[in-house]
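Before a colleague's protein record goes any further, I have to sign it off. Thanks in advance; the entry in question is below:
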Amino acid sequence: MPTANRKGGETRDVFTSRKGGLLRGFSRKQPIQSASIAAAHRVDAASPREGSQGHEGRDPPTPPSQPLTGNVPERDVSLFLDKGNELFAQGNFDEALRLYYEALLRLNKSNITVETDRGPKPMTRGERKFRTARCLVNIGVVHIRQGNSVDAHSALELSSSQSKLVDRESDFYRNACEVLADSLENRGLVYFKEHEWEESQELYAEALKARRLCITLIDQKQKKLSRKISRSKEQTRKCQEEKESCQLDLANTLYYMALLLEKGENIDEAL
């Protein structure tokens, strides 16, 4: 399910009632914000990866690049993702998928460096897991568009697993919750396309919980910020924008749940 473009990468592809869907793109300085774009990010990850559970019976993807050595600059990951998003928006799914795999290959390394004012520093485990999960969502969305439900399921299941590996104490915990909701919704979409209404509804219900948790986390952040004497207008504005973006996601999830319930002839519950 391609989703709105948030500077962090995200995709949503809901019931084909949206053209193109929403895309969350990685920002080099900020993990996730929103900006609408008709593109999708999900990755097909059939193979087990660090911190994830294996998926028996599925062939592992073959990364197109040679094994990487040395430190991996975060900007390289962003470049592959940004270009992949552009190609996805143009309908060039095969090439977009190849670039998403290039990004995934780099995210699978533990020695990613992030540029800061004080020079490069190692990317935290929380950020790496979050961004891996987002990239996997992109790959999964590509597979949905290509009608490849098996690989879509595989990628999105792995994305959900990676999101759950981000600790609550991490600065990227809320971002991981957003990605978890996206992966669950897209998995629900695959089941919807397969006419598996009950499975689809269960996944949308789980996505709804994740959406509500995101809003709760932002409310907590706003309360902490309100107690800070040194808070800036920019901090307050950014926090409010994040909340509005999450509220929009929540409204979208509820809307698609209503469509699903209507499809399953649960009219009263849909209303």
